[in-house]
Structures are given as structure tokens and as C-alpha cells.
Design brief:
This protein has about 230 residues and is α/β, with parallel strands linked by helices. It is about 20% helix and about 25% strand.
Length: about 230
């Protein structure tokens, strides 16, 4: 059965700009959920393109430490460059497949056709397009992907069953309140929005409805650690 391992790549480096989550199967294959910048995208360095590189240096140590035979699939939550800039590298050097929600896939595959912030200029080949609410499996793990348009219209979240626990990979659309207000012990969560990403109130309601329906035990956001 699958090993109960869900590893955040940014735990291997103190200078990562977003969280890349790895699921490792008993066979030694790994799925990575998002794969973004090596450096933090702060206002002081974000405009310098040479600072915006993927966390390539973590891959080989990750494989050695956890016995990963190969990276098999990249599952992409949304199109923002700080979450996908390393995907073309993984495709070239590790021959991985890329899976994404159909609404996300159309932006990733043809970025030049879209006028929206935070696009990666390099088109990404999508090998499997998933639909809203679709259930699927990979290496003994069960998943459900949903349209989760909190930060941007073109966004998904993925619920995975990991060692019998319900783990939600929420990308940038939702975070615990405690991440922004450390003294808040209410256990609540917030939706993250960027107005220029065609955000509407209806989209936030969709996220709230899905969060309540999926009932995750753990929340793995696109930035920061896992929360329970």
C-alpha cells in the first residue's frame, strides 16, 4: 500500500518561494503537486528574472533520502508562475506527465492567448485533463479534483487519501486564519483573492462549498506548512 508520506519540498531548502508537495508510492514513484521558484518572490527581487528559478537542487537529495525511483506525474493546482516555473524542466529531464483541471490546462498550454497576471511564458504540455469533481487514482492513492477559484478563476484543489487521512492540496485559494493571525485559535480559514484574476463573490462561495463538502483533515496550501 502507499507509504504514508507527504513531503513539502520547501522543507529541504530555506529559500523556496512556494510549497511543492510530494506523494511517494510504495513502488518508489513520486507525484509532485506544483513545482515553483527557488527564491522567495519578494518585491525586492521578483522583478529580476535571474532570481526566479525552480528548486532544481532539491530533486536529487529528495530522491536519495526517500528512495524515490522516479518522478512520475506533476499535478498542477493553478497557472501562476511561482507554482509552475519548474514544470518544463521536469518534463525535459525526468520525462514526467502533467495533469491539470481542464480550466487550468487551457491557460498552461497556451499562455500567449491569455491576458492575466503571473503567467509563465513557456507553454506546458498537459498529458491528462481532469474535469470538476472528477475522481481518479495514482499508484494506490485516491484523489478528487475540484474547481477551486479563490485566488484566480483558473484554479483547482485536490483531495487525496493519504494513509486513510483526507488531505486537501488547496494551492493559493485557501489558508488557515492562523497563518495570517498567529494568535487566532478559532480553527477558521480564509479565501485568498487577487482582483485582477477575474475574482467574483460566486467563486469564493464555490471554494467555501467545496471545503465544507470535502471535509479535509489536513490542509496543504501553496505557501507554508501543512495544517490540521
Amino acid at each position: 500500500r502507499p507509504r504514508p508520506l507527504c513531503l513539502r519540498a520547501s522543507s529541504l531548502t530555506t529559500r523556496s518561494g512556494s510549497s511543492s508537495w510530494f506523494l511517494i508510492s510504495e513502488s518508489g514513484k513520486a507525484m509532485v503537486i506544483d513545482y515553483g521558484y527557488r527564491l522567495s518572490s519578494t518585491a525586492s527581487n521578483y522583478s529580476r528574472r535571474y532570481t526566479r528559478r525552480a528548486a532544481f537542487h532539491s530533486i536529487e537529495p529528495l530522491k536519495r533520502q526517500f528512495g524515490i525511483e522516479r518522478i512520475d506525474v506533476a499535478l498542477i493546482s493553478h497557472f501562476h508562475d511561482d507554482h509552475v516555473c519548474g514544470i518544463p524542466y521536469l518534463q525535459r529531464h525526468y520525462n514526467i506527465e502533467c495533469w491539470a483541471l481542464d480550466d487550468v490546462a487551457k491557460v498552461l498550454a497556451a499562455p500567449a492567448q491569455w491576458n492575466t497576471p503571473c503567467l509563465l511564458q513557456t507553454p506546458i504540455r498537459i498529458d491528462r485533463k481532469l474535469s470538476d469533481g472528477e475522481s481518479f487514482q495514482w499508484e494506490g492513492f485516491d484523489f478528487q479534483i475540484v474547481h477551486y477559484p479563490g485566488q484566480t478563476e483558473f484554479h483547482s484543489a485536490v483531495l487525496a487519501q493519504v494513509d486513510g487521512r483526507r488531505v486537501l492540496f488547496s494551492g493559493d485559494s485557501s489558508y488557515p486564519v492562523k497563518l495570517q493571525r498567529p494568535d487566532d485559535d478559532s480553527g477558521g480559514w480564509v479565501v485568498n483573492g487577487i482582483m485582477r484574476n477575474s475574482v467574483t463573490l460566486k467563486m469564493h462561495r464555490k471554494c467555501a462549498d467545496e471545503f465544507e463538502r470535502l471535509q479535509p483533515e489536513f490542509l496543504c496550501p501553496g505557501h507554508g506548512p501543512c495544517w490540521d
